[in-house]
Design brief:
The complex is a heterodimer of chains A (289) and B (135). Chain A has 289 residues and is α+β, with helices and mostly antiparallel strands. Chain A folds into 2 domains: 38 residues, no CATH class; 219 residues, 2-Layer Sandwich (Alpha-Beta Plaits). Chain A is built from 11 helices and 11 strands. In chain A, the strands form 4 sheets. Chain A has a 4-stranded mixed sheet with strand order 9-2-11-10. Chain A has a two-stranded antiparallel ribbon with strand order 3-4. A two-stranded antiparallel sheet of chain A has the order 5-6. Chain A is elongated, with a radius of gyration of 30 Å. The termini of chain A are far apart. The termini of chain B are far apart. In chain B, 50% of the residues lie in helices and 4% in strands. In chain B, a hairpin with a 5-residue loop joins β1 and β2. Chain B has 135 residues and is mainly alpha-helical. Classes of the chains: A alpha+beta (289), B mainly alpha (135). Chains A and B meet through α3 and β1 of A and α2 and β1 of B.
Chain lengths: 289, 135
């Protein structure tokens, strides 16, 4: 026996026909309405069309404060223990920053340190003693040229193009801590433990998230407050107390690119320094000493 | 066939064991979860059918827009403006104020464990009502 040429061609032809017909038979197995439903993903036709043409997109809220380069000036001579504590408390409370005693695990967005630690390499032997005693308020410098963003493998930390704020995207952070190694100012903290356990439930701010174990966090220049048209929490707290005490504002916040902004005016009329300028990160936090 | 009986018995036993999860629970699927919709607010950001299927994509779009771009205002297709926020918009007092009665019902049913609430704080629920849930 065996398959001869004629028989082979017959079988091949019939199989090809069958293969070609199978999608058609499949399509016939469901009713046209079912098929349409499948194509539309379960939506009605107007619903489908609306979502097809409606490109969901966000926009800046109308009340938002905007700038092209946010910056802060810290007038250290106007600072005292009370203002510094108020700034730290305002920031840490609003942003659900946990209070962890262990210095190896602590989380801080804004804190204070003494002159020679904030400005290493500038500890002149006979410097004004008052300056050495002043509490220097330190926070993320929101560098113009941020080394943390260059090393982040997931772009979880990035400089926002619109206003230069160095942001953290907690959804993307994988906790590698490269950014902590890259930051010359120690402005970043890693969550070694679940931070929620260290925030009292009644002290939680329900409008702001906490963080999870395994991510790096830092000051965000109060991006969420700027969007609502409010000044950063520390600036607001400091200005309130300074007003009460009848002093010049200790913290001034504004747009460096705007020559008439409050920061620019303050920087024009006072001598200011920045932290580790030799590294070329171009900090956007200025210290008036 | 050598040991035909044993092999056949083994094959049958194997088939029974393999298909066990299918026939054991057949016809006894738990009832579909009923979510409790907000009483005050009747309209969600987008249409109900859309939210049911696409809320995760919407929330994903929101988080990228808010965190990465800084655009926090969302215009839904009926033209209403919303603040893009899980905590302050979706789960606000007038809307899905109870995670256990809304989010959790479907997520638990389908065995989905989203990590949203590892960081985002769900609204506080009164413990009394939680006790009711348990009964």
């Amino acid at each position: 026996m065996g398959v001869n040429r004629r028989k082979f061609l017959k079988i091949a032809g019939v199989s090809a026909l069958g293969a070609a017909a199978s999608p058609a038979t499949e399509a016939l197995a469901i009713t046209p309405t079912e098929w349409l439903d499948k194509q539309l993903g379960g939506f009605s036709i107007p619903e489908f069309l609306l979502h097809f043409f409606h490109k969901p997109a966000g926009s800046q809220p109308a009340e938002a404060l905007t700038a092209t380069r946010w910056a802060m000036a810290v007038n250290v001579r106007m600072l005292d223990e009370e203002i510094v504590e108020a700034c730290m408390e305002a920031c840490h409370k609003i942003h659900n920053v946990p209070h962890i005693e262990n210095p190896k695990r602590e989380i801080k967005w804004i804190w204070h340190d003494e002159y020679e630690h904030v400005f290493p390499g500038q500890e002149n032997e006979y410097i004004d003693e008052n300056l050495q005693k002043l509490p220097f308020l330190v926070l993320c410098n929101h560098c113009f040229n941020p080394p943390c963003c260059r090393v982040c493998p997931t772009k979880a930390t990035f400089k926002r193009k619109s206003d230069g704020v160095v942001m953290m995207d907690m959804h993307r952070c994988i906790g590698c801590r490269f950014c902590m190694a890259a930051c010359p100012f120690g402005a970043r903290s890693f969550n070694w433990v679940d931070p929620r356990k260290f925030i009292k439930e009644e002290e939680q701010n329900p409008e702001y998230p906490t963080r999870a174990k395994g991510v790096v966090e830092k000051c965000q220049f109060c991006a969420e407050r700027l969007a609502k048209g409010q000044m950063p929490a520390c600036v607001e707290a400091a200005q309130e107390i300074c007003k009460k005490k009848g002093r010049e504002p200790a913290l001034v916040f504004g747009d460096l690119d705007d020559p008439n902004s409050e920061v620019r005016q303050v920087l024009r009329s006072h001598y200011s320094i920045r932290r580790k300028p030799e590294l070329g990160t171009q900090p956007n936090v200025y210290y008036i000493v | 066939m050598y040991d035909g009986g044993k092999i056949l018995a083994g094959v049958i036993l194997g088939l029974i064991l393999l298909t066990f999860p299918i026939w054991w629970t057949h016809g006894s699927a738990p009832p579909r979860p009923e979510v409790k919709l907000p009483e005050k607010e009747k309209k969600c950001v987008e249409e109900g059918a859309y939210m049911k299927r696409k809320h995760m994509q919407l929330l994903d779009l929101w988080r990228d827009s808010v965190v990465r771009v800084g655009d926090r205002s969302y215009v839904s297709f009926n033209g209403k403006r919303y603040d893009m926020s899980l905590q302050n918009t979706c789960m606000s007092t007038n809307c899905h104020a109870k995670k256990t009665e809304f989010c959790d019902r479907c997520h638990n049913y389908t065995g989905v464990v989203p990590y949203c609430w590892d960081c985002h704080i769900p609204p506080k629920e009164e413990p009394q009502e939680k006790a009711e849930e348990m009964h």
